[in-house]
Amino acid sequence: MAVLEVKNISFGYSHGTPFEITALKNVSFSLEKGELVGVIGHTGSGKSTLMQMLNSLLKPESGEILLDGKNINADKKSVKEARHKVGLCFQYPEYQLFEETCFKDISFGPKNMGLSEEEIRQRVYTAAEIVGLQKELLDKSPFDLSGGQKRRCAIAGVIAMLPEVLILDEPTAGLDPVGRAGVLEMIDNYRRQTGATVIIVTHSMDIVASIADRILVMNKGELAFNGSVSDIFTHSRELVRMGLDVPVATKIMLALRNKGLEISSDIYTLEDAAKELCFFLAKEGKI
Amino acid sequence: MENKHLIEFNNVSFSYDEEESKVFALKNVSFTVDKGEFVVILGHNGSGKSTIAKLSNSIFVPAEGKVSVDGMDTSDEKNEFEIRKKVGVVFQNPDNQIVASIVEEDVAFGPENLAVEPEEIRKRVDDSLKAVGMYEYRMHETHRLSGGQKQRVAIAGIIAMQPDCIVLDEPTAMLDPKGRNEVMNTVMHLNREMGKSIVFITHFMEEAVNADKVLVVDNGRILLEGTPQEVFSQSKLLYDCGLTVPDVSALSQMLKKAGIEMGENILTEEDFVDSFLKLCGKNAVEE
Fold first, then answer.
1. pLDDT in tens, A181-219
2. Per the CB < 8 Å rule, is B255 touching A259?
3. In chain B, how many domains are there?
4. Which helix (H) or strand (E) covers residue A70, if one does?
5. CA-closest candidate to residue A218, choices A169, A275, A159
6. Range of the domain at B107
7. Fewest CB within a 10 Å sphere: which of A129, A208, B238, B257?
8. Is the entire prediction scored with pTM above 0.80?
């Protein structure tokens, strides 16, 4: 059964003013348990609005959102439950660190859930381990950490609530290549250890191509595409028109095809591209 | 007297720590930026890149060594005004550097502060907005622009002060693919057509391939300095300090491991496609 079902939701800002904007229009999709879903879309396409719907920070004007089969906006209790079960990690989450120590900061979420002291402690340690934050750092002020460590600490604060659905808005923005790889690895760790569903919102086509099971493409408030990596990136022309792109590997394959080489363009990662090119050269008798 | 170097860092050290036990953010850094030169600075988070940006127009002054802009010492307070006219800085977050609610008013803010005559301001604002391709948006509200558009308005605001050099500190980190392209094309235009010196700080290796000179900063020191070809041929050194090479270079290195020699200096998709076609011989192209 789907963990999260989004049924025909719409939402707008600034109603009744000349600046009225439809942020979401009839969006429907569902997420299965344990899936890793990438959400891409140009700036202002409705990605962030959609994510804030999923744990009831914003409520749809029409349509409904079901978590484990129950409408999250049914009453106060269901809203609260959604906030605990769907963990939302905003862009640049390190700006939201506020406590005296990392330990206290990470424990803020579990504490609000009304867990026992012992359970909270356990969760903080588990979360810190998943994000790769050394135990020694837990007693330090989060403001004394490096940029990469701050990001880890902030994400740990969401992970400590052990959400069934973990949503991360641009988790790698502003990080260097090693930092990016590290954050993606810890997200994967969390998914493997807990079986949770993960949604990653990103501007990087290469990130979604390399890790997502499925991709949602938002365009002007509508869900333009919903499919596997190969389904999505066959629409390269439409994606570019939407202000998006295709992975570098795909671009090279398409360019070679355009030059008349019989090469598969169903390639999304550099590793697969290397394999395909070797295969092609062998077939042509060039190696 | 005309100075050959527009910006010169001479053995510069800088520390954020006021106390005795000095932790240096930069240590003995020396490099130059010439008139019309396009310099890219790469480095992992916390390597000292942004510190360099802030030292380049007297926002920070060095603890040791000397930074000069067109021959003027940045440590000398009386030069501050002239230096800031010559070197403008654009930062990462577009939302933090827009000051007015209307595009053209925002661009006029800099020259107004320099007490430029009103007619001259009008001309500069129009010219700057045209240079970044935002002239049609001059009467738009700034908060309704996309990230890439805001960044271009921020750049126009700098151009309107007619600096000789523009320093951009990760200007594309928060943008979608289209926004990144817009900013990159604008920067290339300023450099190639208008002769502005550019110092471009980034985490995206791909953005360094068009540079005249690339500096790699690690732990507050300059680890590598050279053309993009020279720097990206040192892939091991780059990986060791938390960076990577452009995807295209990574792909040709993967092929190299499989015994396929694509040739040196492959940095862009076009390079790769050309080189691969050559490798295939004419047959493939004719097919």
1. 989 999 999 999 999 999 999 999 999 999 999 999 999
2. no
3. 2
4. strand A70-71
5. A169
6. 5-228
7. B257
8. yes
Nearby residues of A198 by Cβ (< 8 Å), 6 or more positions away: A35, A36, A37, A165, A166, A167, A168, A187, A190, A191
Same domain membership, residue B173 and residue B113: yes
A73-115, pLDDT tens digit by residue?
Answer: 999 999 999 999 999 999 889 888 999 999 999 999 999 999 9
A79 to chain B, any CB pair closer than 8 A? The answer is no
A176:B242 CB<8 A:
yes
- Give yes or no for residue B284 having a pLDDT over 60: no
Instruction: Check if the interface score ipTM surpasses 0.90.
Output: no
- Which of B199, B228, B257 is the C-terminal boundary of a domain? B228
Instruction: Choose the closest CB to B250 out of A255, A270, A287.
Output: A270
Which CATH code for domain A2-229?
Answer: 3.40.50.300
Residues B137 and B259 in one domain: no
Same domain, B133 and B274: no
Average pLDDT over residues B39-68: 92
| H-helix or E-strand spanning residue A119 | helix A117-131
- Gap between the Cα atoms of B85 and B114, Å rounded: 8
B165 within a domain of the structure (yes/no): yes
Residue stretches of chain A with pLDDT short of 50: none
Contact A186, A155 (CB under 8 A): yes
Same domain, B204 and B285: no
- Residue spans per domain, chain A: 2-229, 247-287
Interface contact A252-B92, CB threshold 8 A: no
Q: What is the least distance, in Å, from the CA of B130 to any CA of chain A?
A: 22
